[in-house]
Amino acid sequence: MTIIHKDVDSMENVVGHLWTRMTSDFLTALILGAGLFTVNIKMGLIMISLLPIGLIILWVGLKKGKSIQKSVNDKLADMVSLFVEYVKGLPVLKTFSESRDFEDKLNKSTEDFGKNSKKAAGFSALLLGGYNLVIELGFALLACTGAFLAFRNELSIFHYLMFIIISREFFKPFMNMESHWLNYLKVKDSYNRIRSVTDAPPVPEADNPQKPSNFDIYFEHVEFGYEEDGFRLQDADFRIPQGSLTALVGPSGSGKTTLTNLLLRFWDPNEGSIKIGGIDTKEIAYDDLLGSISIVMQNVILFADTIYNNIRIGCRNASPEDIFAAAEKAMIHDFILNLPEGYQTVIGENGIGLSGGQKQRLSIARAFLNDAPIVILDEMTSNVDPINEVKIQKAVSRLAEDRTVIVIAHRLNTIRSADNILVLDEGKIVQSGRHSELMTEGGLYRSLVEKQDMAGRWRLPEAVPAG
Ligand SMILES: Nc1ncnc2c1ncn2[C@@H]1O[C@H](COP(=O)(O)OP(=O)(O)OP(=O)(O)O)[C@@H](O)[C@H]1O
Ligand SMILES: [Mg+2]
């Protein structure tokens, strides 16, 4: 946020406006200085005699000021991101009565920024004062020596006045050097921060990208860790046939999301390979890879726009018929028709709110419309009411009719009909098979199912009302 809002803005201001003015100021000074030198070399030399001293003071001082300026910018970035986090998290903080603590943190961060700013301001005032003093002394020296020379008839009064008046203009850009330099530091700092984003290495692309002819997914002895030590995915070796529904289950932190991150090449495996239709995902053009996968996330992103446009994000040039059909398949069409303005109802910040299950079905409608051959569905962790639950389940099995679907399942009863269930534990696939097989086998899967059943919230209702 700080990079986009502040750093880009400050670069625009300095590069677009201040530098042109600075350049023209210095050009003017150069021309005036050269003119004065041709009038009288001795006076010209006196005029610039103290300038090097001033510039050295400025240079040394600003070198030191660089770290102070950097810490001010860092503190500002900290403060802004903390504020954004605070505003975004306000409902959570309030419900957990945590807002006091957070406000203390905010206050501290604001004070830190204030302290650093004051320090920087004090430093630059001192530096500027010292520098300006030297420049003014240079002018005083010029005025006194000039008067002395004029008194001894070595300089005409006209030339003396010329030096006094024009040298003010000559010194002007040097007087502003300090702010120019500070601007330079600021812009350099902003530039570095912007570069840290634009220089992030892109996903390495294949030289001769290939297109998969089918969408069977293979993980072949995949090993992966985010960092040197810590979580490790070990020997993930399985096949997801095209057109099947595979569920990933396991305790929190067991590596379910990691598997999908690897398939999407958000990270690459340390060892082993991931193939689609027999082709290593590294050999597929990245846009093609992402284009062939739809993701239905846990936290569905909806825009403050009509329901119609929110579904249309799945495919920009879809016809109204396509959109209605997608909504119907996602089991959300009837719900939308019952809204006051149907598909034109605005949702989001100033519109109506939707339940988690409804949001997820909208997101499934997008996946239908997008029509990618592979769908990754990260099920919501929260409890969904039984009617919503059945609808989501139905929509997902429809998705799987002619697509390869990977469901990260949190509610285990939604995956009883899955073609294959991969059970993960601490980065290892400890079991795999259909629900009934895994139930007779026992082990982690059965204990997870039993735990959820005991919680009692997971059982399906006997009959589901229509609509
Ligand atoms: N970007 C990351 N950098 C470092 N470690 C990470 C990163 N993302 C996840 N991890 C770690 O990897 C492990 C597996 O995480 P993962 O998100 O795959 O779990 P999960 O099975 O999806 O869990 P959940 O059910 O809670 O979503 C965890 O220990 C997590 O802390
Ligand atoms: Mg996860």
Outline the structure in words.
With 467 residues, the chain is α/β, with parallel strands linked by helices. The chain folds into 2 domains: 2-198, ABC transporter type 1, transmembrane domain (ABC transporter transmembrane region fold); 217-455, P-loop containing nucleotide triphosphate hydrolases (Rossmann fold, 3-Layer(aba) Sandwich), CATH 3.40.50. Helix content is 58%, strand content 12%. It has helices spanning 2-39, 41-48, 51-95, 99-151, 157-175, 177-198, 256-263, 286-291, 307-312, 320-329, 333-337, 356-370, 386-399, 435-441, 443-455, and strands spanning 217-225, 232-240, 245-249, 271-276, 279-280, 293-296, 374-378, 404-408, 420-425, 428-433. A 6-stranded mixed beta sheet has the order 6-7-8-3-9-10, sandwiched between helices. Strands 2-1-4-5 form a 4-stranded antiparallel beta sheet, covered by helices on one side. A hairpin with a 2-residue loop joins strand 9 (420-425) and strand 10 (428-433). The protein is elongated. The relative contact order is 0.09. Bound molecules: adenosine-5'-triphosphate and magnesium ion. The site of magnesium ion has 3 residues, from helix 7.
